[in-house]
Design brief:
Length: 278
Amino acid sequence: MVELLGGSDIRELADRLGVVPTKKLGQNFVTDPNTIRRIVAAAKLTGNECVVEIGPGLGSLTLGLLEVADSVISVEIDAKMAAALEQTIAKRAPGKNFTLVTHDAMTITELPKAPDALVANLPYNISVPVLLNFIERFGSINKGLVLVQAEVAHRLAAKPGSKVYGAPSAKLAWYGAAALAGNVGRTIFWPVPNVDSALVYFERHASPIGDEGLRASTFAVIDAAFGQRRKTMRQSLASWAGTPAEAEVALVAAGISPQARGEELTIEQFVSIARARG
């Protein structure tokens, strides 16, 4: 039996630990058990997964995951909260398969077990880089769900042609397909953020698009393409290729109009440009 945390539990734990949520760490704790269960349900877990969670904080989502997942690995950078989390799990989810790793999620390279899924309430300030880094480093992750700032969620899930389609959209598309999975109201967080939040669900491609070398080359094209939004690819890729003329050669070889813009291109087209450049 797992006993989830409510708002009063969260505040009591924080007060006892002397924890004051900070904007620097992007800390906003979910205080509503029903929302936690909705988030877990949106992750489409079968019950057999080893789930990795980033930034568990005081353990709201961790407990919700332990209700469903076979095992949970939580990565927490704050040593004080990490120590309290172990006590919380032992008390509220006894006998569940839980592992705590005290480490910076941006630099971690090893986990005690290969995770099948990633589910996390990501800190707003590092949500995109930490998500992409984790998917890159841990190839065993085949699906996941993240709770992020609504604006970021729409960018991650955007498709070519959308006004918010950009580098995060294209880079996540390298790894798999993403889609919005619902909104989360501000009032279920403590402290209440100044922005809305939303869920993004993703599934990794059955077969990788390419190896690490091609990924790095493709991401360089993506960064150049969106470094100067609304410019033609001939212009935006000039520094990447050397000159506008060389950019045009690569684009034509990839079968893409030099007058196209980055916002219009699929991940496959970005890959074609990277390959054309060699």
